[in-house]
């Protein structure tokens, strides 16, 4: 099994001339679609999540908390996290490559103002609650960034304006941070990332708990303990949920049959796949495919409706 394949959420703009990724999440629907949406993941970019409406549940390693309307959170690069919007929630997520904050490679800004934060081994996140006066300036700058990015009529030099505003957000954020003291990396953080990495890389193959444990050079018992501490699921439960999650993208974006999808994501039978899908999503795969969203409705042909009725029997 591969131990080095990238398992972080991929930024599709990473190699482009403007590598900022912004996710608009409304009523548990993400635009653009992103592989890290609502699952445990990490990435090489830093992230600001700004709640516009409702509340968001955030889990970072073994810490869990809620953000309310107008709150925000900074999540550092490589931190394992999961963001789940409540029903009716609306939030924006800015996923920012560190190089956009450093102006250019090798700069004094990179050395003094970016890398000490983004490469810190134990600094994983920072709360920006709206009811804390000290946070108001950085939240104000994030609000301006939001208006600028999502405005209907783009001004001339739009990317340049966004880049300047990102720098203003970062500068205000720096003023809030305490001195970053040197600290040893957390072995437990590295361990759970390795375990999750193994599942993300090999989810469509036959894989045992012992296989997962071996990639982190730990016992099966220690593997179970790590999953219980950070994920609150067994490795097998997380594997099943991740397979189901990967299948939803195929249901929404392809014409593959339910049977082909089941085998592609690692299930040994269509009936087993449908059984687990019903347990987790409270509907069949075809019901998910023919759901209420415009994208899924386009895929709901008469033949799929027949299959839907068959699944109900």
From TrEMBL:
The keyword Transcription applies. Keywords: DNA-binding, Transcription, Transcription regulation. This is AraC family transcriptional regulator. The keyword RNA-binding does not apply. SUPFAM superfamilies: Homeodomain-like, RmlC-like cupins. It comes from Caproicibacter fermentans. GO terms for molecular function: DNA-binding transcription factor activity; sequence-specific DNA binding. InterPro entries: AraC-bd, Homeodomain-like_sf, HTH_AraC, HTH_AraC-typ_CS, RmlC-like_jellyroll, RmlC_Cupin_sf. Residues 193-291 form the HTH araC/xylS-type domain.
């Amino acid at each position: 099994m591969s131990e080095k394949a990238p398992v972080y959420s991929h930024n599709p703009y990473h190699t482009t001339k403007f590598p900022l990724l912004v996710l608009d999440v409304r009523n548990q629907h993400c635009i653009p679609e992103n592989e890290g949406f609502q699952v445990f993941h990490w990435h090489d970019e830093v992230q600001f999540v700004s709640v516009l409406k409702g509340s968001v549940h955030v889990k970072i390693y073994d810490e869990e908390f809620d953000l309310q309307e107008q709150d925000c959170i900074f999540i550092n690069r490589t931190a394992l996290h999961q963001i789940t919007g409540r029903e009716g929630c609306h939030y924006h997520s800015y996923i920012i490559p560190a190089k956009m904050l450093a102006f250019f490679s090798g700069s004094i800004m990179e050395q003094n103002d970016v890398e000490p934060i983004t490469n810190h081994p134990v600094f994983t996140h920072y709360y920006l609650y709206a009811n804390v006066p000290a946070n108001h300036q950085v939240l104000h700058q994030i609000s301006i960034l939001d208006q600028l990015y999502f405005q209907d009529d783009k001004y001339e030099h739009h990317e340049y304006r966004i880049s300047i505003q990102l720098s203003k957000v970062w500068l205000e954020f720096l003023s809030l941070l305490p001195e970053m003291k040197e600290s040893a990396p957390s072995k437990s953080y590295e361990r759970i990332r390795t375990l999750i990495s193994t599942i993300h890389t090999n989810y469509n193959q036959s894989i045992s708990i012992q296989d997962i444990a071996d990639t982190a050079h730990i016992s099966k018992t220690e593997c179970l303990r790590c999953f219980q501490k950070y994920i609150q699921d067994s490795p097998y439960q997380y594997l099943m949920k991740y397979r189901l999650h990967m299948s939803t993208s195929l249901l929404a974006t392809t014409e593959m049959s339910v049977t082909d999808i089941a085998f592609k994501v690692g299930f040994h039978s269509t009936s087993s796949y449908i059984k687990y899908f019903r347990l987790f999503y409270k509907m069949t795969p075809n019901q998910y495919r023919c759901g209420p969203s415009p994208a899924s409705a386009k895929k709901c042909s008469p033949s799929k409706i027949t299959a839907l009725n068959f699944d109900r029997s």
